[in-house]
Design brief:
310 residues, alpha/beta, TIM Barrel, 2 domains, eight-stranded parallel beta sheet, two-stranded antiparallel sheet, 13 helices, globular
Length: 310
């Protein structure tokens, strides 16, 4: 289906059953978002633990999400890599599987120059005729995609259509919009900054907290787009404590733990991600309850630790 880059797009977690991907739970999550007002599904990103999925599992998750969606929601598949050839292969697979777009994180660990970033993304864009959203998160990759680089990519690669910005730098995001002159859609990659990003011209968010409350994130964006700024601010303020709680530790540890507490999935994590510290678990549980979400399980670190897999 046609992809419209706006609204609340969920950065899907990957549920595990023991050592394997839990296809049944993944399908239930897709249905949850179809019914919950989510604008697009984004599997195999950071929140989906793509770094510890095998190549076969990566393809499996994307295929299951596309099949479960049945065209009801667009799917933007995470296909990035620090290996350009691998990013091309993953993006080709996503297209063949029926994905509506691809999300490409900037190459990590290599620390490429700005020219290296440009050549990497251009190579993928030229190899695969699929809408591409770039993912800029220097805190994870050790390199920032500068606005000038994004502007050149927007000019030279028509299928690079947007950027998920997780720099936290609103000045940089404003410069991206100015330099790209509307050729790139700006999407927030930080739940706490969804409203500020909308206010400078962004169109939505790829959200972690939407794994828990998709209706509320969608309602925030919709309120802003409809000009109801007061309601958008109220929703922003209500969400903030929950957002803070799901980033108490490295994403996606807290959000998967929360989903486990709420009985949505088994909260399995793959090493080197591990169970939350007990003190943080209690803060997370308190934040869920304060929001009106009632945990179905006791906040026990031993319960969560039993779900950690290698």
């Amino acid at each position: 289906m046609a992809l419209t880059l706006q609204g609340s797009m969920v950065a899907l977690v990957t549920p595990f059953a023991g050592a394997r991907v839990d296809d049944a739970a993944l399908k239930r999550l897709v249905e949850f978002h179809v019914q919950g007002g989510t604008s697009a599904l984004v599997p195999c990103g950071t929140t989906g633990e793509s770094a510890t999925l095998s190549h076969e599992e990566h393809e499996q998750v994307i295929e299951v999400v596309i099949q479960a969606s049945r065209g009801r929601l667009p799917v933007m598949a995470g296909t990035g890599s620090n290996n350009t050839a691998e990013a091309i292969r993953l993006t080709k697979h996503a297209k063949q599987a029926g994905a509506d777009a691809a999300l490409l994180i900037s190459p990590y660990y290599n620390k490429p120059t700005q020219r290296g970033l440009y050549l990497h993304f251009r190579a993928v864009a030229e190899a695969v005729d699929l809408p591409i959203l770039l993912y800029n998160i220097a805190s994870r990759t050790a390199v920032n995609i500068e606005p000038e680089t994004l502007a050149k990519l927007a000019t030279d690669c028509p299928n690079i259509v947007g950027v998920k910005e997780s720099s936290g730098n609103l000045e940089q995001m404003s410069r991206i919009l100015q330099l790209t002159k509307g050729r790139l859609v700006l999407i927030s990659g930080d739940d706490a900054l969804t409203l500020p990003v909308l206010s400078i011209g962004g169109k939505g968010v790829i959200s972690v907290v939407a794994n828990l409350v998709p209706q509320d994130v969608a309602a925030l964006v919709n309120a802003f787009e409809q000009g109801n700024i007061r309601q958008a601010i109220e929703r922003h303020n209500r969400l903030l404590p929950l957002i803070k709680a799901i980033f108490l530790e490295t994403n996606p540890i807290p959000v998967k733990t929360a989903m486990g507490l709420l009985g949505m999935i088994e909260p399995g994590l793959r090493l080197p991600l591990c169970a939350m510290e007990e003190a943080n678990m209690e803060k997370l549980r308190a934040a869920l309850e304060a929001y009106g979400l009632r945990p179905a399980k006791a906040a026990s670190s031993s319960t969560t630790k039993s779900k950690v897999r290698t």
